[in-house]
Write a structure and sequence with these properties.
Layout (H helix, E strand, L loop, with lengths): L1 H6 L1 H21 L12 E7 L5 H16 L5 E8 L4 E8 L5 H7 L4 H11 L5
Antiparallel strand pairs: 1-3, 2-3
Helix pairs in contact: 3-5
Length: about 130
Amino acid sequence: MLTFFIRRPRFAMVIALLMTFVGAVALKLIPVEQYPQITPPVVNVSASWPGASAQDVAQAIAAPLETQLNGVDQMLYMESTSSDDGGYSLNLTFAAGTDPDMAACQFAQPRPVRAVQPALSQYRRW
């Protein structure tokens, strides 16, 4: 059979092009039941402390909060930013297929808030 296609290269080329065309048509016609979720879910945690500098926010809010949230199930990585207007944003990226609502429930308990409260008490201004 190999010698058949070696002696008739045009026939082999036509068969290859025909198979490519049939594959392209089949790709468009075969229904896809459900596309898989390939983008990892991201949960955003934000806080604001009006009048605080970025360094104060990083020390009093970011560090304790990130320490408490480190190790949440299925979390891949976290990314945070602190701004000079007292804003703080933390993005937690989870493994694909993780339900973002259930992931948010894991750290929506008061445990992270209790971690930040002692750090804020030293900055309290009366």
